Amino acid sequence: MKSLQTIFKYVKNYPGLVVAYFGFNILSAVFGVVSLGMVSPFLMLIFGQGDTFKTVSGSGAMSAVGFLKEKLYALMQSPGGSSKALLILCLVIFIAIILKNLFAYLSMYFLNPIRNRILNDMRRNMYQKILQLPVGYFSEQRKGDVMSKLSNDLADVEGSTISVMESIFREPIVIILSMVYLVVLSPQLTMFLLVFLPIAGFILGRIGRSLKKQNVQVLQQFGSIFSTIEETLGGIRIIKAFNAEKKIEKKFNDENENLFHLKNKANRRRDLASPVSEAMGVTAVLCILYYGGKLVLASNTAFSLNAGDFIAYIAIFSQLIQPLKALSNASYNIQKGSASIERIESLINENVEIKEPANPKHLEEFKTSIELKNISFGYDDQPILKNINLTIKKGQTIALVGSSGAGKSTLADLIPRFIDSSEGEVLIDGINIREYSLNSIRGQMGIVTQEAILFNDTIANNIALGVEHADINAIIQAAKIANADNFIQKKEDGYETNVGERGMKLSGGERQRLTIARAVLKNPPILILDEATSSLDTESERLVQDAINNLMSNRTSIVIAHRLSTIRHADEIIVLKKGEIVERGTHQSLISQDGFYKRLVDMQEVK
C-alpha cells in the first residue's frame, strides 16, 4: 500500500531502533510459542501418557521444545521423576511467559520513539514546506485546509497508520512462528486451516476498500470547518457589526452536521471489521474442532493426532486469532489513514515554483540599480502585468499608483522574488535575480505592508524579527526612529510587553510603527512600502508617515501609494492601468499632462 510505503520511507531513517524492535519482537514470539508448546507434554504427563513425547519430538522441528520433551521423558523413567518433570514443566512455562512479556515490553519501548519520530518528521516537513512555498500559494489555498493537514490529518495518521505499526511488524512474526509449530503438530489440520484463511481475508478486504474514499470526504469537511473557524476568529468584529452571528452560525452548523454524518458512515464501516473478523475466527475454531476431533478419534491411521497435541494445537491457534484480528483491523485503519497520508504528502510534495539556483550568487551589496525588462505576469492565462520596463537607480524613490487591480503589488512582489515573471527578467546590478540566492536578495530589502503583521510575542522580539541576536539598544534606537519608543515606554512591561494575537493589544498606528521599527533595525538598502499608511487615522498617519520618511532617508524605495499626497516628492511616479504603464514622471510633470494621474489626484482632492 502506498501509505505504508510513505511510513517505511520515514522508518528507514532509524535503523538502530528498527533492529532492536524486531529483535525483541522475535524473542517475544519465540517464548510465546514455547510456553504454549509445553501444553502438550504437560497434559500427557498428567494423563500418564509420557511415551508419546518421543513420537512428537521425532519430527525434528521446533528443536528446543522437542529437546525439552526428550529430557522430560527421560526424567520420568527414574523413580519420582514424574513429580520432578511436572515441576520443571511449570517452571519452564512460567519463565517462558515472563520472558515473552519482558521482550514484548522492550519491543514497545523501542517502537514508541519510532512512532513519535515519524510524526515529528512529518510535522517538520510540512511546516518546512509551508515556509518554502511562494506567497501566491496561500492566496489560492484555504488556510483552514492547510491547518487541518497539520492537525487533523496528522492526528488521523497517528491514530490509524502509525498506531497499527505494532500489528504490521509484530503480528506477522507471531503468525509465522505459530504456523510453523502448527505444521509440526499436524500438517493435515494446518493445510485445512490454510484453505480457510484466504477466504476470510478476501471477505474482510472487500469490506475495507471503501474506507479510504469515505475518509477523504471526512478530511475535506474538516478543512471546510477549520476555514470557517479561522474566518470567524479573524472577522468577529465585522460579524457582530452586521448582526451576522445567526448566518455564520448556520453555516458552521451545516458544515458540522455534514461532518457528523460523514464520520458516522466511515466509523460504522470501520467498526464492522472487528465483529466480522471475530465471526471468521470462531468459524475457523469450530472447523478445526470438527476436523481435528476426527483426527484424534482416528487413532490408528497415519494422520492421527494424540489428544495432548490436539489441545496444544487449539491453544496455539487461539493465540493466532488475536494477531489475525489485529492485522484485519490494521488493514481497515491503514485504508482510513491513507487518505490523510496522501493529503500530507500532497503538501510536502507541493511544487516550489520559486527555487534556488543550482550555484547561486550572493548579493553582498546593492550598488547601482534595479531593472525590470519586458516583464509580463499572469495567473491561469489571466494577464496581470504586460510588458513592464522600469529602471530604479540606487537612492531613488519610485512610486507605483493606479486603481485597485492595476498590478501595483504584483509588480512589487517581483523584486524580492515572492513571484517570478512569466516573461522578461528582473535585474539587480545587471544580474538576473534568479541567479542570486533568495536569502541574499531578501537580505537587502525591507518591507512594510498595509496590514501590520505582528506575532504573538514581545515588542522587542517583533522588532528584532529579521535580525539574529539583536542588541536591545539597537532595538530601542530603531523604535525611536520609527516614532514608537514613546508609546512603548508607557507600557507596563516596556519592550517586553506581549502584543497579543496579531498585535491586537496595540492600536493600528502602534502596530504599523513597530513594523517600521523592524525595517529600521534590519537597515536594508532597498525598501518596499505597500500602502503603509492607507488604513490609519489622520494622527496615526502623520506619526507613521514621519517614521517612513526617517526610514526612507538615503535608501532606494519603491512606494505603493493609495494616498497620492504622500508621494508628491518621489523621483518618479509610475502610473499603472490594467497591468500596463500608462504614464510616468514627477508629480508636476504628470499633473501638467492632464491625464489619468491628474484624474486620480482630483478625485482624492474632491473627497
Protein model, in words:
This protein has 607 residues and is α/β, with parallel strands linked by helices. The chain folds into two domains: 2-348, ABC transporter transmembrane region fold (Up-down Bundle); 369-606, P-loop containing nucleotide triphosphate hydrolases (Rossmann fold), CATH 3.40.50. 63% of the residues lie in helices and 10% in strands. It is built from 24 helices and ten strands. A six-stranded mixed β-sheet has the order 6-7-8-3-9-10, with helices on both faces. β9 (572-577) and β10 (580-585) form a beta hairpin. α3 (39-46) runs antiparallel to α6 (81-132), α6 runs antiparallel to α8 and α10 runs parallel beside α15. It is elongated, with a radius of gyration of 37 Å. Residues 50-62 have low confidence and may be disordered.
> Could you give the distance between the termini?
65 Å
Tell me the CATH superfamily of the largest domain.
ABC transporter type 1, transmembrane domain
Whole-number tally of structural domains: 2
Beta-strand proportion: 5-15%
What is the CATH domain class of the largest domain?
Mainly Alpha
Count the E strands: 10
Task: Label the overall shape.
Answer: elongated
Characterize the largest beta sheet: strand count, sense, and whether it forms a barrel: 6 strands, mixed
| SSE class | alpha/beta
CATH topology of the largest domain: ABC transporter transmembrane region fold
- The helix count comes to 24
